[in-house]
Hints:
Elements: H1 2-11, H2 15-25, H3 39-52, H4 57-65, H5 67-84, H6 98-116, H7 123-143, H8 146-158, H9 166-180, H10 185-189, H11 198-205, H12 213-218, H13 220-232, H14 237-256, H15 263-272, H16 275-282, H17 284-287, H18 290-297, H19 302-310, H20 317-325, H21 374-378, H22 382-398, H23 401-409, H24 413-429, H25 435-456, H26 460-463, H27 465-476, H28 493-524, H29 526-530, H30 537-551, H31 556-572, H32 574-578, H33 583-595, H34 601-621, H35 628-643, H36 650-666, H37 675-698, H38 703-716, H39 721-738, H40 741-761, H41 798-814, H42 821-835, H43 838-861, E1 868-875, H44 877-880, E2 887-892, H45 898-913, E3 918-921, E4 937-946, H46 950-955, E5 966-976, E6 988-1001, E7 1007-1018, H47 1020-1040, H48 1046-1057, H49 1064-1073, H50 1075-1078, H51 1083-1110, H52 1116-1137, H53 1141-1153, H54 1160-1173
Parallel strand pairs: 3-4
Antiparallel strand pairs: 1-2, 1-4, 2-7, 4-5, 5-6, 6-7
Helix pairs in contact: 2-5, 3-5, 3-6, 4-7, 5-7, 6-7, 6-8, 7-8, 7-9, 9-13, 9-14, 13-14, 14-22, 15-22, 18-19, 18-24, 22-24, 24-28, 24-30, 25-28, 28-30, 28-31, 30-33, 31-34, 33-34, 33-35, 34-35, 34-36, 35-37, 35-39, 36-37, 38-39, 39-40, 40-41, 41-42, 42-43, 47-48, 47-51, 48-51, 49-52, ...
Amino acid sequence: VLLHIVSKCHEEGLDHYLRSFIKYVFRAEKPSVTQAKMTHEILVLSMATILKQSADFLAINKLLKYSWFFFEALAKSMAMYLLEENKIKLPRGQRFPDSYQHALHSLLLAIIPHVTIRYNEIPEESRNVNFSLANFLKRCLTFMDRGFVFNLINDYISGFSPKDPKLLVEYKFEFLQTICNHEHYIPLNLPMTFSKPKLQRVQDVNLEYSLTDEYCRHHFLVGMLLREASVALQDNYDIRYTAISVLKNLLIKHAFDNRYQHKNQQAKIAQLYLPLFGLLLENLQRVASREALYACAAASSPTSRDEFMCSFASPSNRSSLIADKDPACGAALPNGHAIKREDSKGSLNSEGAISSPDQSENVTYLGSSTRSSVSHCSRLDQFEIRTLLMCYLYIVKMISEDTLLSYWNKFSPQELINVLVLLEVCLFHFRYVGKRNIARVHDAWLSKHVGTDRKSQTMPALRSRAGGMQVRLQHLGSLETSFTLNHNAGTSEADIVHQALLEGNIATEVCLTVLDTISFFTQSFKTQLLSNDGHNPLMRKVFDIHLAFLKNGQSEAALKHVFASLRAFISKFPSAFFKGRVNMCAALCYEILKCCTSKVSSTRNEASALLYLLMRNNFEFTKRRTFLRTHLQIIIAVSQLIADVALSGGTRFQDSLLIINNFANSDRPMKATAFPSEVKDLTKRIRTVLMATAQMKEHEKDPEMLIDLQYSLAKSYASTPELRKTWLDSMAKIHVKNGDFSEAAMCYVHVAALVAEFLHRKKLFPSGCTAFRKITPNIDEEGAMKEDGGMMDVHYSEEVLVELLEQCVDGLWKAERYETISEVSKLIIPIYEKRREFEKLTQLYRTLHGAYAKILEVMHTRKRLLGTFFRVAFYGQTFFEEEDGKEYIYKEPKLTGLSEISFRLLKLYGEKFGSETVKIIQDSNKVNVKDLDPKYAHIQVTYVKPYFEDKEISERKTEFERNHNINRFVFETPYTLSGKKHGSVEEQCKKRTILTTLNSFPYVKKRIPVNYEHQVNLKPIDVATDEIKDKTAELQKLCSAGDVDMIQLQLKLQGCVSVQVNAGPLAYARAFLSDSQSSKYPTKKVNELKEMFRKFIQACGIALELNERLIKEDQVEYHEGLKSNFRDMVKELSDIIHEQARTACQEPAEIYHEDTMHSPWMHDSLHVFCAISGTSGDGSYCSLRPTAEI
């Protein structure tokens, strides 16, 4: 009856009367008989009975749907009972009889299947009962024995499984969130440590760090929430979103709870959530996604950046080998379900992300359940990452320093680095991106969310409570990139300004929190940081974070503190900057100089002061002798900034130089030393380097000119290896950006040779740059290193060389020049062997194996194209200035056509001089400058081929050898004596031009000047010999290929053997070898041509035989046609020459009457040659067969 009344009231929309009734009217009657059951006991039993009946589904559904009424009645009845029976004073365990606790437990077990199994059939009912049960249990925590209620909660949560669909996971988190909203949530989670003796209290602290079962027993609710969140993080977006939001809302609540505003109270609360650190470290690869890492990690030098990357993101086997050995991390679930890990090999394959240490005892990795496919859980989006990091930062900020330190002390060195990576990632994700970007994101967010929310609120599912919760949560997270309460989702200017202000404040807050933490870390781990003079991975990471402050946008207020921190850092660890390797000093100079061009004057002043301090500390460090290292690194940094075209704001930079000079002049203790004059000298040198900036800026879009400029700078620093290396590195960057990998590889090879040469001269390495000569003859340039002042502070070592050689291997692989990899490896292997680095040897030999396999593959497929070459000449004094009249050979990628390069140059110079004024000369003839109109810029482009003498051809056997280390090129221009370009066979001449370049390709540049030109004029008979020679060579090449290209072979054969009146080989024979003609030409030339024909006939014969073996039945007729053409050609050839015509013309016939082309073929063709060449039948050629047969 009661059920019917309640459901009727709801249907008529009168449920508010029910609420008033429970609140004001309902009183549990006291039973007259003492033994009789109380109202709440009867209610519980009858509810359980209805739910267990399987017959009346209608009643069950109504009870579930309106369960709030009955649970409210239960709670009120229990409260009244405690008050009226005066049991409120009793210990909790004695307040309610065991029978009631048992009945409650039965009711809970009866509800579970209706939620976890029938959720699809009755979505509204199951959601309602889930919510009202949570509220009821939350009340029970106030009335009953808490241990018992915790058991109920645990049993209920255990009813859910990791493979549940999205809806059930939502129910689970809604349930948890409701329970966690208990007003005494904090005391419920904190066991009373102060009641225990001190020793046990110290041991207890150890439980606080990770999600062990012990931890979950001591901090039940937070433990359960974190475990569920940990599972949810491996799931798809909606589920992760729910979990992360619940966590964030709880922390927001703690932060603003005015009962716990004291620092120590907040520290204790933060300590409760310490296992969240472990959770983040487990998911480090996903929080620090590759792009984010790369931005954070474009650290001090290319090497350190790569090290940073490979410890997280390397796709190579190296990291996957290590990842397999890592302990998987996580925790078993409270209900004893251990979840198998279906690892989402996310964006990174990590050797860095190792579990937090305490989790290795009970490890089963919480992975994605089968429902969420791997792709779901691989990437966290910006919103999720920022929310998680926000929680992390709250804990780091609030927790006591002692706890934090004891937590850090449990970590291994690699795990400590991961802890620091989290801090670095915070700086990246909360950097201030500027008002314009914020406005753009704001608009995108609104269109994405507000539009869909308005629509979706008409959907039945979202009318229910949790749908509204979702929308509110989204608004709580306001923007995808913002974490500020911004309910009015407007896009007015004021909103954007407000949003930008909030973003700015949060960036500052994050910056200062990270700064505090890193300062405390530096203080605590000073001895570890100082090991090996400050050159260790931990120091590098701490330093990277200090640099990250400067790299990611910070507010002016925050930067003041950052600079103060950097000043302290330099003073604390001078040896890291001024002794041993220069990486840290170099990276710091680069970033400070960038700040010296800032638009904000206070930042410029701070940066100038810091740079001055760096010089002064260096000066003091060398016992007041010199600050050569900082001097050199500043020059290098300026050069790099110019190379990266990042040095805008020249005047601001000049101001900063002035400030530094003024510091030096007014620094009293330094007056008597050489310091002020050295500073002056440095600023003068910087100004000289700045002169190059203007030129760089001018040629920003002209890659060839830019590279030439940078190369000329590199050459001018022969005496300063560090600077030369800077410019070569910069050139490599430009090449990689333009996709010119061969040139980039050569830059790496030159840098490695430079370092090898340096070490060789210091007797630290067995060979200098000569060891690289097999890779490129251009390497001799590096031998020109001068030994003077610039060599004093160079700290190259074998380690640096190995890093550079590894970079060479990588570069040569990308350039597809696999053959040279072995040469570089020969230099690395002895070093690895000496150091017993067997893992690296394995890796290197694996690379070598791969390289040789690649060589075989490309030789077989012939799909490797190592470049096309063009001669480019510039004419026009007014436009090209010193380039006027110069000729270059340009190396273009793969198969670049003449039209392509012409178009590129036309566009490039058209943009410089105006498209109307640039003209391309397609003709390959010598240009007469006087005939050109000076109003136009003329560019002559000609296709050229590598040129080799016959001897060289025999030495350079492979395609690679004919495309590597080449410096001679050839092109041919046809002409006739009558002045026309083309004429008949008898009058066709050819001019062959051979160009020699200054260096060999590939080189550190894409274009090399021509320094020598040689021309050969070919008379008509020479042209004929040349043509026949080319045809023969083409046929021989096709026949000797491992994988014969039949189509090409047939096309070539057809061109060779078809007898046409005035074209093809026969035309040459008629023109130069017939009786009437041959006497006009030198006998030697005629014999040469005959010899060529002999080889040509032989090549045709072999090609025909090959074709016969390859063809299928449908081509037999076609082949017969080719054969008869060949016979006719041989017959005509012997007719032209007359000698032994009979033999010659019978012979081919005889050949083909025989069983087609078996062994006699070769002898027969020899007769043909005899006939053509005019040697006697019984001479050397013919003696191979019995004369009788002839």
